[in-house]
Design brief:
- Strands 1, 4, 5, 6, 9, 10, 11, 12 and 13 form a 9-stranded mixed beta sheet that branches.
- The protein is mostly beta strands.
- The mean pLDDT is 91.
- The protein is 13% helix and 34% strand.
- It has 2 domains: 79 residues, Pseudouridine synthase I, catalytic domain, N-terminal subdomain (Alpha-Beta Plaits), CATH 3.30.70.580; 97 residues, Alpha-L RNA-binding motif (Alpha-Beta Plaits).
- Keywords: Isomerase.
- One of its GO terms (molecular function) is RNA binding.
- Belongs to the pseudouridine synthase RsuA family.
- One of its GO terms (biological process) is rRNA processing.
- This is Pseudouridine synthase.
Length: 191
Amino acid sequence: MKHSHFIIYKPYGYLSQFTSNDSKQQSKRFLGTLHDFPEGMMAIGRLDEKSEGLLLLTTDGKMSDFINSQKVDKEYYALVDGAITEEAINKLKNGVEIGFEGKKYKTKPCKVVKLNIQPDLPKRSKKIRDARHGPVSWLSITLNEGKFRQVRKMTSAVGFPTLRLVRVRVGAIQLKAMTPGSVLEVEMFDV
């Protein structure tokens, strides 16, 4: 069986699924409205509704399992509320305690770098608080795990809640100049 693979820029406000039978979600926006995807398509690692950026889609379950395993780095740009401190960055790097499935979980060590200039990202569809209303900081956070809303929980745990979150890289695949809602079909993922 030949599998299909896509790289997309998931826009803010979309769920990382294609449709829903849940009547409470009928007003939500789904990936299936961005493109006519083949039957059996699945997102490899989800982005929550308020997150945006690089999302890989495939019909190959083995490929999905491999990328979702802890072998592949995922890099995020996070705009956080406040002028982040070196102490907070070091805590993030070393792992922080977050809630996951009703229990306490300590995140694995990861790479965290404060970005000195704002990354060149498309404007988000929904306005976000910016530096006019108090200091903000941009971070690059690279993880090789992916718990539900992990980056948001991590930055909140050190006192700097996330205002905007964009996944910019999965392994060697980068968001580059893609724009929200764009879809690129590829032969294979080179992660």
